[in-house]
Amino acid sequence: MGIFSSLFSKGGKMAKDPVCGMDVDPSKTTLVATHEGKSYYFCAPSCLKSFKDNPARYLASAAAPSTMEDSHHGHGAAGGGKKHGCC
Q1: SS3 of 72, please?
Q2: Which residue, 82, 7, 85, is CA-closest to 45?
């Protein structure tokens, strides 16, 4: 077992943060919002706030294919290879 095994629940299903796309363990986060009867989980308070301010923006982009250029967090090459900006 690696040193990172304790970071993830065994056999647990990860959820995607709808704002930044990071994997989130629902059993380990307190950052949760419910929208239209569905629970959404977040990696950081800033992602939760962004979602609460405009859930339709993130739910629409989750349903449609997106590109890194659309991300406001600076992920990947389009963001200059910077570290994740929300946590």
Answers
A1: coil
A2: 85
Q: Which domain holds residue 24?
A: 13-54
Rg (CA), the chain: 14
pLDDT tens digits, residue range 33-76?
999 999 999 999 999 999 999 999 999 866 665 444 444 444 43
Tokens of 85: 């900006």
Number of domains in the chain: 1
Residue 41 in any domain: the answer is yes
Burial class (CB in 10 A: 0-12, 13-18, 19+), 26: middle
